Every structure is written in C-alpha cells, then in structure tokens.
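As the work plan foresaw, our protein records have gained a structure token line. A representative record is set out beneath this paragraph:
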Amino acid sequence: MKWMLAGCSSLSSLKDISKWFTNNVNDMSWIFQVCSSLSSLKDISKLYTNNVNDMSWIFQVCSSLSSLKDISKWYTNNVSNMSSMYKDCYFYYINHIKKIKFMNYI
C-alpha cells in the first residue's frame, strides 16, 4: 500500500475504506501523504493493521483532515516506524495510539 494515494491533492473523500483488504499489508507508509483536500476518512478504524510495521508519513500534509477518531482501534504492536505520521497536519482530535516504538516528529 506504500504511496498508494500519495500526492492526490484533489482527492476530497473516500467512500468506504473499511472494505479494503489489508490483512497482508506490512507497509502503510505515505498512503495519504499530501492528500491536502481529504476532509474525512470514515471507517478507518476497520483497517486491519496487525501485520503493519511501517506507518511513517501516512497522513503528512493532510491539512484538511480535522480528526482521526477511530485509529485507537488499530493494532500497532508490530509497527516499528511511525515517524512523521502527522507532520504538517492540523487535527483537533486524535485518539491515543498504544505502544509506539519509534516516534520521531509524530
């Protein structure tokens, strides 16, 4: 999934990402990077993250996203890199993430 939607600055919404099959994904880095018009990510909590080890830069410059309420349900025990996940974002609400191993500029 790395770089999947990166640079899609005109993308303003995604319908139902809960149906994305992510069971075998180990790298989610840069997925939404510079999706600056993206205003919401509904059902993001349903993404299966048990095998993911890299979430770096995932939301970098998602300046129109105001909240990520559902990511507290993500399983992040295997994630070793979350550097700059939220760099240049302006959220007013983010749920806590547990057991972060590497958090440079998160």
In short: Confidence is low (pLDDT under 50) at residues 96-105. The CA atoms of residues 48 and 73 lie 9 Å apart.
